[in-house]
Amino acid sequence: MNAIFLMLVGLGAMALGYFVYSKFVAEKIFRLDAGFRTPAHEFEDGVDYVPTNKFVLWGHHFTSVAGAAPIVGPAIAVIWGWVPAFLWVVFGTIFFAGVHDAGAIWASNRNKARSVGALTGDVVGKRARSIFMIVIFLVLLMVNAVFAVVIAGLLTKFQSSVVPVWGAIVVALIIGQLIYRKMIGLLMVSVVGVIALYALIWVGPSVPLALPEMFMGMTDKAQWIILLFVYAAIASLLPVWMLLQPRDYINGLQLFVGLGLLYGAVLLSAPDVVAPAFNDNVPEGTPSLLPLLFVTIACGAISGFHGLVSSGTTSKQLNKETDLRFVGYFGAIGEGCLALAAIIAATAGFATLADWQAVYSGFGQGGVAAFVQGGANILSNGLGFEIELSQTILTVMAVLFAGTTMDTGLRLQRYIFQEWGVIYKINWMQKAAPATLLAVGSCLLLAFGSGGDGSGGLLIWPLFGTTNQLLAGLTLLVITVMLARLGRPMFVTLIPLLFLLVMTVLALLIQLKGFYEQENWFLFALDLVVLGAAILVALECGATLNRLRSGKAEQAGSQP
């Protein structure tokens, strides 16, 4: 199988999904109204609520939800073969992720930009809200703590990426001023920003930077983690237009340039996919494809974290309701394109099947390293780039996305603490600075709780996929109930909701058995908590929809 076939079929199918299916969902299901006054206008404060150009907002949304996960998940899941990963990414993006992301923005937009967690209390019930808040907190804790570890590892391993990664922050700050203070046109700013980013990438290999191997008892990796959280804390308190929006926007453009280079290299080099279509010889210890495929590939098919971004920051910046089709659904399409590129790099970026098998010697192998290694080989063969430059381009791409996700994740975690302050009437917790300190403190406690290297967040990472998909199910539940109350068709969200609940429960049961056999009692207990939440969500889902159906039946029966 040639990689060009995968690229053309995958991109073609997702384009069809955007132009046809998303239009149907926007017009017939959500019934978007350009005249609806969005919360960005109603509560405009110049900090969190800022009416934003849809292209800039798309950049924020897309890069916030993308992160490293749509690279890591697909590049691990190809161990079962490229066909299952390819099908789940393509069809999951079209029928699951796009509807989920756009639906979460719509639900929040119609309810004063409240987060989907807080919204659950009104739409489903207070008990469901409590479950939702716990699951949200766990997902954000995992994302923030683990992405810091991932970024720190990449900065340590690929020192040529340090200058472009941190230089991108300076570029973003300048762009924010040019757009909102100097009122310079978006096209000019975009061109200058992309040129500046790639100039930094070109310079990076010439000035590799590294932190001291040990400083105050901390390894270089631990030092990077501390610096990343200091930066993320500052970024979460700044007005969104100053850093978050322009950083995400320019990173979005950078990604599409990077994807253009990678896909262009595929066309020119026409590499063969050396990985098997279905791998009948998986390494010992690899779990079953069903249901683990659907939680291993979360971002890139459907991800609960997207619902947090959609209802946490994106809905507060929506200029017109009709913009959410482009921002939400097309944002999911962008992530699907990244996941597709990860599959191609991890299956066609190796010379032989033996080379591929050497990387995929056990479950969990591959990931970002396989994407960078395989993608660099494709860039080098197709475009003639030097390997080090190719690796720098792809590493910077992965790090910048992980960084933007961490920025948004910490801001969202701050929102969660503030919402808890409102719910439980804790006045000091409702303020931004104390809530940010609580968010950073909880992440650092997890990261450094098991040792001084800062990798403690990896302890609960095995449960990220299942917890994240449970969160996606909860978000779809809220959207489904809203549609039911409005008397609109529910199948576009109900079918993905039921599918995710089944797969999540099955995956949790399989993981529970594995943790028991390993005598990993911490993860065993945490798995039980998440499993209990999944079961309660399923019960709440059935009860709520049944009440709505019964109420409508009684109403119909009472009519003359």
Automatic annotation (TrEMBL):
One of its GO terms (biological process) is cellular response to starvation. Coiled coil: none annotated. It is found in: Cell membrane. The chain crosses the membrane at residues 6-26, 62-80, 86-109, 130-155, 161-179, 186-204, 224-244, 256-278, 290-309, 329-354, 432-452, 458-484, 491-510, 522-545. One of its GO terms (cellular component) is plasma membrane. Its main location: membrane. InterPro entries: CstA, CstA_N. It is a multi-pass membrane protein. Keywords: Cell membrane, Membrane, Transmembrane, Transmembrane helix. It comes from the Bacteria. Residues 2-347, 365-507 form the CstA N-terminal domain. Belongs to the peptide transporter carbon starvation (CstA) (TC 2.A.114) family. PANTHER family: INNER MEMBRANE PEPTIDE TRANSPORTER (PTHR30252), PEPTIDE TRANSPORTER CSTA (PTHR30252:SF0). This is Carbon starvation protein.
